[in-house]
């Protein structure tokens, strides 16, 4: 008699469900509002969809363990490791979304007069289509290879499948880790450049304002114009700072995970050495932190986007009995206004 037992790691179940709920809630808020359904928020909406898919098709099923008569048979062996490849492609998708979000902020601050040219609807659509095409092609192409190999070669049994799948997992993991590091480096350079430009601009404007204050009356038009310019620059710096906080959350949650991936693949997996038990525990906790970032991401979007907070406030007024609660919550968020 065959006996089956399914065991799901509770921490990954919590992470997966929370990721789906947080991303789906913000996505529903955007889609339900005509004011928010604009090209400006398409990148965020695409990011939220990627977060939902990452949790629903990887985090929850990947860490659900099926025991058949006490023997592990799922998910590691399911269709020659397809869940791992789906997770890797979606993880890459999330990284690429972060990159275009950083570049969007970079263009808005460094090249404000070219925003309409570079961030037009057609350009954003093409970029997102390319990202999602790559995300779909990675697991599809490799899965076709495994399926056709199994049909054509009778010697391609479960053991051979596991060996090829493990090798492929190692190669893709290393490529993905290196690519993610490259994205982090590009993002760091972009933010450093943005902060340098905005700080230099506000310093130069203060110098001009001081000269105007000496030579002209305080109510002079030029003085007023420079003050307005300083005010706009301060708002721009504040927006950059908020985006930087968002990026630092990502950096701190992902960097240890990427370092550990590269270390373990080179030190153990490539040479087929067994992982020490302590290393497995550390890797699991760091992995959990990295995989939890897609759940926190919608909250950061909500905190750092004034339009989202305004829509939440309007929604709170429409729901009976939630007005006072929404006022208390949104007054706390006011410290993050852009």
List the keywords:
338 residues, mainly alpha, Rhopdopsin 7-helix transmembrane proteins, three-stranded antiparallel β-sheet, 4% strand
Strand content: under 5%
Here the CATH topology of the domain at 4-182 and 258-304 equals Rhopdopsin 7-helix transmembrane proteins
Q: So what's the CATH class of the domain at 4-182 and 258-304? A: Mainly Alpha
Strand order of the largest sheet: 1-2-3
Structural notes for this entry:
With 338 residues, the protein is mainly alpha-helical. The protein has a domain at 4-182 and 258-304: Rhodopsin 7-helix transmembrane proteins (Rhopdopsin 7-helix transmembrane proteins). Helices cover 79% and strands 4% of the residues. The chain is built from ten helices and three strands. The chain has helices spanning 10-32, 42-62, 82-110, 115-118, 121-152, 158-215, 221-269, 277-304, 306-318, 323-333; strands at residues 4-8, 64-68, 71-74. It has a three-stranded antiparallel β-sheet with strand order 1-2-3. Strand 2 and strand 3 (71-74) form a beta hairpin. Helix 1 packs antiparallel against helix 2 (42-62). Residues 322-338 have low confidence and may be disordered.
Topology:
Blueprint: E1 4-8, H1 10-32, H2 42-62, E2 64-68, E3 71-74, H3 82-110, H4 115-118, H5 121-152, H6 158-215, H7 221-269, H8 277-304, H9 306-318, H10 323-333
Antiparallel strand pairs: 1-2, 2-3
């Amino acid at each position: 008699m065959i006996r089956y037992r399914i065991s799901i790691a509770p921490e990954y179940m919590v992470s997966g469900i929370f990721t789906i709920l947080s991303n789906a809630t913000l996505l529903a808020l955007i889609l339900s509002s005509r004011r928010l359904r604009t090209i400006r928020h398409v990148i965020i909406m695409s990011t939220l969809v990627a977060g939902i898919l990452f949790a629903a098709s990887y985090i929850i099923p990947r860490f659900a363990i099926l025991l058949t008569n006490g023997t592990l048979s799922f998910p590691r062996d399911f269709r020659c490791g397809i869940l791992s490849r789906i997770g890797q492609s979606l993880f890459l998708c999330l990284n690429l979304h972060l990159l275009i979000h950083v570049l969007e902020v970079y263009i808005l601050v460094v090249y404000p007069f070219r925003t309409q040219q570079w961030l037009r609807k057609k350009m954003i659509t093409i970029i997102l289509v390319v990202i999602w095409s790559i995300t779909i092609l990675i697991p599809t192409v490799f899965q076709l290879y495994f399926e056709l190999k199994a049909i054509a070669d009778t010697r391609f049994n479960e053991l051979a499948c596991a060996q090829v799948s493990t090798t492929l997992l190692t190669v893709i993991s290393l490529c993905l880790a290196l690519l993610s590091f490259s994205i982090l480096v590009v993002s760091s350079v972009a933010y450093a450049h943005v902060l340098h430009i905005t700080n230099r601009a506000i310093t130069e404007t203060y110098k001009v304002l001081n000269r105007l204050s000496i030579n002209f009356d305080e109510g002079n038009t030029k003085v007023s114009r420079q003050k307005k310019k300083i005010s706009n620059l301060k708002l721009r710096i504040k927006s950059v700072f908020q985006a930087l906080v968002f990026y630092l959350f990502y950096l701190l949650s992902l960097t240890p995970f990427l370092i550990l991936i590269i270390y373990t693949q080179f030190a153990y997996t490539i040479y087929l050495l067994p992982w020490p038990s302590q290393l497995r525990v550390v890797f699991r906790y760091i992995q959990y932190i990295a995989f939890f970032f897609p759940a926190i991401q919608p909250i950061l979007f909500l905190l750092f986007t004034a339009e989202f907070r305004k829509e939440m406030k309007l929604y709170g007024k429409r729901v009976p009995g939630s007005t006072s609660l929404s006022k208390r919550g949104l007054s706390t968020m006011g410290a993050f206004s852009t």
